[in-house]
């Protein structure tokens, strides 16, 4: 059967590269976006021009009704789902004393609750698949375990997702669904623009990281791809760090 995947937040950055990797492996991939329709359509057209099997879908994953509609659309069009990549994320970069209630609510609604609800509504579609190997991969970051200035809200959501991954792996195994998380270190994407003294941060990181370079989206995508096939059957409920060895120092 045709393999169907949904990659949330896949119009750019890590999500786009993960989607491309799965497309190259023969998946039909739902490209998900929320706000930037022009960028999403550009990515969609780019993949169509390369003869990939791709579909475009829009949903605000901080809104449960929109999430439900997204999975209803996938059900109507495809009938089932083999792979869910929970990549979409947002949040507020602030010091703890400057965080407002609405900052907290927004960050946790998108990252924590959004990941939970996408997984919840994906399960019936994944159970409908006849594939012997189905997988959910949650994208987190090393900010869940290590201090990053101004990252307390986002880091908290990533820590929740990593814990959720363990519970999902246990509860969904009987449905033939394997669940893991991929935790990226400092990844070379537009998200680095949020950091003050960006160039200094990058140079200092390169000096001390054993790999001698930043993580690139392809590093994340390669591991995600592995976790989506049967070679990773005995890896379950794990958060695998891709940071070039930075967390060893």
From TrEMBL:
Q: Which GO terms describe its biological process?
A: bile acid metabolic process
Which terms does the record give in the GO molecular function aspect?
A: oxidoreductase activity
Q: Does the keyword Methyltransferase apply?
A: no
InterPro entries reported in the protein's UniProt record = NAD(P)-bd_dom_sf, SDR_fam
Record's keyword terms, sorted: Oxidoreductase
Please verify whether the record's keywords include Oxidoreductase: yes
Note the Pfam families from the entry: adh_short_C2
PANTHER family from the entry? OXIDOREDUCTASE, SHORT-CHAIN DEHYDROGENASE/REDUCTASE FAMILY (AFU_ORTHOLOGUE AFUA_5G02870), SHORT-CHAIN DEHYDROGENASE_REDUCTASE FAMILY PROTEIN
Q: Which family does it belong to?
A: Belongs to the short-chain dehydrogenases/reductases (SDR) family.
- Put simply, this protein is called Enoyl-[acyl-carrier-protein] reductase
Originating organism: Lacrimispora algidixylanolytica
What is the taxonomic lineage of the source species? Bacteria, Bacillati, Bacillota, Clostridia, Lachnospirales
